Structures are given as C-alpha cells and as structure tokens.
C-alpha cells in the first residue's frame, strides 16, 4: 500500500522533502524541473477518469437508499474506508515508496511511519482487549483469521517476493492501487485490473492446490504462545530494532534523519553526530534536506487541514484510528485483496458459470451472495471513494499521469499479474499478510517481510528497465 511512492498525484502539491523542488518528488522518480526535457511522464488530466469515481458515488447512494437491510454495519465500514482513503491520499502514506526510499535513497522516514502505525495499533488493541474480557481475544481470532495468521510456508515467502517486485514495477501495492485509482491515475487502474485478474487465476484449482496445501509449520502466533503481554512486548522490541536499523542506514548515508525530533534526540545522545551531520550537509541533497526541515516547521503551522498534504506521521495516527474502529466494529483486522477474486467470480456466477465448484470457494473463502454482502468489498470501494474526495479537494485528481508509452503501460499489466499471483500465494498483500500479522504478533508477518523486502530490492533494480526512475 504512497502511498508516497504510490501517490503520483502528491508530486505536484507535496511539501517538504517530497515537494516539487525535491529530486525525489514523485513516485516515478521524475524531477519536475526535467519533465519538459524528458516529457514521457508529462502530467495529463484524463477527463474520462472522472466518470469512474462519480459512478462509484452514485452506486453507493443508490445502495444505501434502497438496501436498508445492509444499513448500520456497512455504513460504519463505509466511514472507516473513507478515513483510510483520505489518510492514504492526504498524508502521502505508502508502502511502495517506503521500501523504495529506504532501498534506493537510504531514507527511512516513510518506513518508520509504517512501523509507528504497527506499534500504535498493536498497543492500543492490546490494552482494549485486555480490559474487555467479553471481547474475543487475539488467541481466538488468530485461530480463525487468515488475515492475522497465515501458515508459515515457503509459498508465503515466494508469494511476497513476487509481490514485492510487482509493487515497484507497478508503483503501487494493494492499498496503493485503491487510492491511486480514486486519485485518477490511469496506469494504476491498469495495474489494479490485472491485479484482480491475477488473484482470480491464482485462486483456480491448479494454483490453489499448490499454495493452500503446501507443507507448512502451521499458524504460529506469539500472543497465543506467550499471552498478550509477552507477544506485544516482543513485537515492540522487533519494531524498535527495525527503526534503529533504518536510522543507522540513513545517518550513514546522509548524516542526519528527516524527523527533527529524532535528529535532536540522537545529537543529545551521541554528540559526535553533530560533526557528521555538519560534514554531510555539504552535499546538495543533505542541504536540501536541512532546508526543508525549516520550511516544513513553518508551513505546518499555516497548512489548511483539508486542502493541503500532511506529514506522513499524521497518516500513521489516522490509519491507527481506522484499524482500531475496524477491529472493534467487525472483529476483523484490515485486509485489502482477499476479496479481489470475488470481483470476477460474482459476475461469472451471474452469467451462470458455476464458480462455486472451485476449491478456493469451498475450502478457503465462501463466495458472498452479492458485492455489498462482504465487508471488505465495501471497505475497498469506500477507500477508493475517500481517495477521490481527497484528490478532488486538494486539486490533484488526474495529476501525475504518464503520457502513453508502451513500456510504461505494458509493465503495468505485468506488475498487476505479479501483485495478484504474489498476494494470493502469500495469503495476502502488504496489508493483510504483513501489517495485520505484525499487529497480531503472527510469525507469518516476518516471513512475508523477508520475502517482500527482497522482492522490493529486485523491483527497484528493475524499474529503469520499464521506463520508471527511482
């Protein structure tokens, strides 16, 4: 799930280091000052893209007007999805860019924002569940939910590896596809369509028999083994280690980190870093970073809360709130792509194709009666709608599109299929198979992260060969 790397639209309105003055401003890695020279990525407003979100709005209005049977629960999910979509778009929050900035540029702010969201969500839910004896504990949930505890198998690693490559080639993950489609990015719409196709193909019997029945160590959950306190504390330690590693990588490369509060703390704890930062700041990139620290501090005071982009850590807080309300209202963790096979299976069933004979729908996931009978379909559609509202208010809808280019758009098809196959084989995408298991202290999250990180490294290397820059 820009997410900054997935938020092509953010390139024109972002502030600070990811503003239009930065050489790392957009997801495609294109310097705005060079666009007129290179020009294959010139921004175009594809007006026909407006039709899609408008139809989505009408669809929602008609549904809630004439289908009161799905009223309360679905309305709550709709509101949560809107919050997620707005947060992803408004705060430039993304998984793809987090990996790419860390791998290609040795900058870890975005990645640390992800880990911060994991930790906040985990701790708040731990406290709530511990204080609510009548609420289903994570021990029970992790036995039931594929989202929070996938089997520890080679297919999870292999699938996440493929998915990681697809993330970078497609400049989007699952959640990134949702919010970029809502933001009017045409290339991501292509990625999204073939993402859905890929998940359905991977759910067919020939593929299902491989990933679902692969030899595994079972569903290992640390909270189930050590209790809520033990699992939560251990996960916190792991999160802290990841944060320290990203800080060390960034300081080694740039002499300082992007977050002012962390930088000040480090300089107090390690005075020698002052000299390192001073020497590193002689480079153009570090000077730009230091300058933008000052600019950000001034601009944050006067930012309009609705019409301007906000810091990625604001997104961490908002997404934490959304995930907590999602769990409390549905007893489910956040997931995105698990319903993608339904988006093909339901129309096929309407055409009298007996898709319910597929082992996937018999042994893994029951096909709903119709689209709005499934919570996650409503959630995904409302995320798209939330991103559309955000892009419309900020004036970024349709911006950040690529000019027609067979290499750029052809690679979108490949990326979508990689995302589809990879996510289904890994029991989920970066949200359902990494974020949620990490929050629930499931070992499968570690396996997904290992494969996903390696895949993202390969994907970053591949980007220039498909017409994308880092």
From TrEMBL:
Keywords: Cell inner membrane, Cell membrane, Membrane, Transmembrane, Transmembrane helix, Transport. The chain crosses the membrane at residues 44-66, 72-91, 111-132, 152-173, 185-206, 226-249, 312-328, 376-397, 409-427, 439-466. It is a multi-pass membrane protein. Residues 1-34 are annotated as: Disordered. One of its GO terms (cellular component) is plasma membrane. Residues 7-26 have a biased composition (Low complexity). It is found in: Cell inner membrane. Its main location: membrane. This is Inner membrane protein yede. It comes from Anaeramoeba flamelloides.
């Amino acid at each position: 799930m820009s997410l900054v790397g997935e938020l092509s639209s953010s390139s024109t309105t972002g502030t600070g280091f990811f503003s239009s003055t930065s050489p790392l401003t957009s997801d495609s890695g294109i310097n705005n000052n060079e666009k007129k020279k290179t020009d294959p990525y010139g921004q175009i407003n594809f007006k026909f893209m407006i039709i899609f979100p408008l139809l989505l709005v009408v669809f929602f209005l008609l549904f809630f007007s004439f289908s009161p049977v799905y009223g309360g629960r679905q309305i709550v999910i709709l509101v949560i999805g809107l919050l997620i979509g707005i947060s992803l778009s408004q705060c430039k929050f993304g998984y793809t860019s987090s990996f790419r900035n860390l791998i290609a540029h040795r900058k870890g702010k975005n990645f640390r924002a992800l880990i911060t969201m994991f930790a906040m969500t985990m701790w708040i839910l731990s406290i709530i569940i511990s204080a609510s004896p009548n609420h289903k504990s994570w021990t029970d949930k992790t036995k039931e939910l594929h989202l929070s505890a996938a089997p520890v198998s080679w297919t999870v690693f292999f699938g996440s590896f493929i998915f990681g490559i697809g993330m970078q080639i497609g400049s989007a993950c699952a959640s990134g596809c949702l919010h970029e489609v809502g933001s009017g990015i045409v290339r991501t719409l292509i990625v999204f369509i073939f993402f859905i196709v890929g998940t359905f193909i991977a759910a067919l019997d020939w593929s299902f028999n491989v990933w679902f029945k692969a030899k595994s160590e079972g569903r290992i959950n640390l909270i189930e083994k050590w209790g809520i306190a033990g699992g939560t504390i251990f996960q916190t330690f792991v999160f802290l280690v990841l944060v320290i590693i990203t800080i060390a990588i960034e300081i080694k490369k740039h002499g300082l980190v992007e977050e002012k509060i962390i930088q000040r703390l480090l300089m107090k704890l390690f005075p020698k870093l002052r000299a390192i930062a001073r020497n590193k700041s002689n480079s153009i990139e570090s000077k730009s970073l230091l300058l933008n620290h000052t600019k950000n501090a001034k601009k944050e005071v006067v930012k309009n809360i609705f019409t301007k982009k906000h810091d990625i850590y604001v997104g961490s807080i908002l997404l934490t709130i959304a995930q907590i309300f999602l769990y409390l209202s549905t007893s489910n963790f956040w997931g995105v792509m698990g319903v993608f096979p339904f988006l093909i299976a339901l129309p096929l069933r309407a055409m009298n194709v007996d898709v319910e004979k597929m082992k996937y729908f018999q042994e893994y996931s029951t096909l709903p009666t119709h689209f709005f009978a499934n919570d996650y379909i409503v959630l995904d559609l409302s995320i798209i709608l939330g991103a559309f509202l955000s892009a419309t208010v900020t004036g970024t809808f349709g911006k950040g599109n690529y000019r027609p280019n067979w290499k750029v758009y052809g690679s979108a098809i490949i990326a979508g299929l990689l995302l589809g196959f990879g996510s289904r084989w890994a029991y989920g995408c970066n949200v359902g198979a990494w974020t949620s298991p990490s929050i629930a202290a499931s070992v499968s999250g570690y396996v997904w992260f290992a494969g996903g990180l390696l895949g993202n490294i390969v994907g970053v290397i591949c980007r220039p060969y498909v017409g994308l820059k880092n």
